[in-house]
Model the fold of this input.
Amino acid sequence: MEVDGKQPTKPTVKREDGPQSQPAYIERRRLLKGTSAVIGGVTLAAYTSPTLRCLGAPAALAISGPPAPVQGSPGFWKDNGRGQTSLWNSQSDSDWVAWVQKLGLTPATSTNPYTKTDQFTSVFASHPDVTGLTMQQVIQAGQGGTAAQKAARALVTAYLDASLYGSRYAYTQAQLTALWQQAVTANTTAAFDTLKTQLESTYN
Done:
């Protein structure tokens, strides 16, 4: 309210350490600006953004390294204009060696184990459903065909992966050859379907 025609003034608080006084709203602002406040008897410290370490995460998670190479799917290896058939389209393919060096891998074989024009049965056990087919024909078959052809497609892919990624891959070349032989010996849809699913889980 006005007193004798003068504008009202804000109340002041007298400081104990000297004769100077400060407006009350400045004192309140200083109080709120402190590093902590007490509400209901609980001290609230100044906010600190969480980190992996302060949340109790292991040090290994706090510093993440480069991701491991991803194993190739059939789409990676087949000749569709986007795949990597250049890595295995000739014996001792120089592109295979260059790819190994680019990714810093330790492959199971110094070069590609076969080419896309090699007969499937020149490396793996024979079966009527894949006799006469090249590696490329098997891998390009898609999800169609018989159970044996589907398993063979997964096998060609897995064998290339095992050769390229070495110990980083789930199976060795010898293990893959043995798994196919077991399926051929059983010669049942269930056996081939099981092998297909088993191998596809390593790159899907």
